[in-house]
Prior knowledge:
The complex is a heterodimer of chains A (130) and B (146).
Chain A: E1 22-24, E2 28-32, E3 36-42, E4 51-56, E5 59-64, E6 75-79, E7 84-92, E8 102-106, E9 109-115
Chain B: H1 2-13, E1 19-21, H2 23-26, E2 42-47, E3 51-57, E4 66-70, E5 74-81, E6 91-95, E7 100-107, E8 112-122, E9 125-132
Amino acid sequence: MNTAALHKNESTKPAPATVNQYTFTPRVDIRETENGYNLEVEMPGVDKDGIDVNLEDGVLTILGRVQPDNQDGFEKAYAEYEVGNYERQFQISEIIDEEQIEASVKNGILTLELPKHAAAKPKRIEVKVG
Amino acid sequence: MYSLERHLFNQLSGLNSLINGLPGGTTFAAPEGRSRRDEFPRLNIWKNDNAVVLTAEVPGVDPADIDLNITSDKIGISGELPSRNRAEGEAYQRLERSSGKFQRQVDLPFRIDTEKVSAECRNGVLKVRLQRAEADKPRKIAVKAA
């Protein structure tokens, strides 16, 4: 699968109730650590007030509402991207401690820390010399 | 596509699927007419009679790490995305974001004054404002009645 093609492709889902607004599937990196998962989601143009993270029935929904950046008084001379909102969903297993999920935003990247439940963390069993 | 993803995912993680993209989140029609969409950063250029505005999507780039190289008729953008810090025992299950150095250069729609450039970067979007060079502005010549 060509993951590069995932970036900024239009979602099949209807856009939220905003006129002429695109909804894109943001690129994401998911890293599994000893204690949980780290997600980095690309949402250029979205600040922290525009982000909604919702976890319901094991489905993590990430929404990013972009700050419109209208160039009033200008016409488009060249374009490689459209501006729009972001939405993506992930299924999350029950080993994630839903209460401990943390989200932060910097430079257009939403970072989510999804810690595993204590019971799901690897345990080191020491073998004693008898 | 979904089953292939699952397969890849399982191969990568060596575990049962703990996190998976839902089919609805990863299937869609590819947009047309955006052949350069995989370039980093992607650029939009706006103009009017007196100025040019260039915007670029630079998610994850520290504004201090962006270099602009501006001549009278070209603008170059270069920089580097932070490298991934994968510690021992960690594994990436999805790697969709770009990494490493990037460099782009585009022609401007007209000659600009390199002394009158302003740039800002907010929420991963770079915006550069450039003013048209006085010598390049079209002049209206009034025709006097003889």
